[in-house]
Specification:
The protein is mainly α. It has helices at residues 3-19, 21-33, 49-66, 71-78, 83-95, 100-129, 135-157, 159-194. It contains eight helices and no strands.
C-alpha cells in the first residue's frame, strides 16, 4: 500500500471516529473479526470480543443519550475532550509501520479533521436539540450510525472514495448547521419582536 493510500485510510478512520468513536470501534472490530476487512496489526485488538462488547455497550448508551433533548447536546459537548484525541490516536495506529513523517502527518491531520468534524456535529446537534419534536434527534442518530457503518467498511476497500465522501459530508454538515442556526436566530428574533416570548 502506498503512503498516500495509508494516509487516506487514517483520515477516513479519524473522520468516522469523530462522528461516533464507539460505533467506529464496534463496527471496525466486528468487520475485522468476521474477515470483511483486513485490519493493520496495531488495530487487531479492536477485533477482540471484549473490545467489541464494550464498544457496543457504549454505542448503545450514546444512542440513548442522543435521543433525549438536552442530554444529546451535553453528551456531544463532553466528547469534545475525547473524540479529537481518539481520532488522532486511531489515525496514528492506522499509519503505524509507515515512515515517521507519515505517522506524524496522520496524527496531526487526523486530529485536525476529528476536531473540525466534532465541532460541526456539536453545532448541528445543538441546533437539532432546539427543535421541540423528538423525531429529528432519532433521524440524526440513525444517519450517523449508517454513515459510520458504511465508512468502517469503505475506508479499507476504497480509501480515497471514503475520504472524499467524508470531506463532502463534513462540508455539507457545516453548511446545514449554519443554516439551522440562522433559522433559529431569525425565529427567536421574530418571537421576541412579536412579544410571544413574554406571553
Amino acid at each position: 500500500m502506498t503512503a498516500i493510500a495509508a494516509l487516506a485510510q487514517a483520515l477516513g478512520v479519524a473522520w468516522s471516529s469523530s462522528v461516533s468513536l464507539y460505533a467506529t470501534v464496534a463496527f471496525t472490530g466486528i468487520a475485522g473479526r468476521l474477515g470483511w476487512i483486513a485490519l493493520p496489526a496495531p488495530l487487531h485488538p479492536l477485533s477482540s470480543g471484549w473490545v467489541i462488547a464494550v464498544a457496543s455497550a457504549l454505542t448503545a448508551v450514546e444512542v440513548a443519550a442522543s435521543l433525549v433533548p438536552g442530554v444529546a447536546t451535553a453528551w456531544e459537548a463532553t466528547h469534545t475532550a475525547i473524540r479529537p484525541i481518539a481520532s488522532a490516536a486511531l489515525a496514528v495506529l492506522v499509519a503505524w509501520g509507515g515512515s515517521p513523517a507519515l505517522v506524524a502527518s496522520a496524527g496531526l491531520l487526523g486530529g485536525g479533521l476529528g476536531l473540525a468534524t466534532h465541532v460541526t456535529k456539536l453545532k448541528l446537534r445543538a441546533a437539532i436539540d432546539a427543535s421541540p419534536e423528538p423525531f429529528s434527534n432519532a433521524m440524526a442518530t440513525g444517519a450517523e450510525l449508517g454513515a459510520v457503518a458504511g465508512a468502517s467498511w469503505l475506508v479499507w476497500h476504497h480509501p480515497f472514495v471514503a475520504l472524499g465522501l467524508s470531506l463532502a459530508v463534513l462540508a455539507g454538515l457545516f453548511l446545514l448547521a449554519r443554516a439551522l442556526w440562522r433559522a433559529i436566530r431569525r425565529a427567536a428574533s421574530w418571537l421576541s419582536g412579536s412579544g410571544l416570548t413574554s406571553a
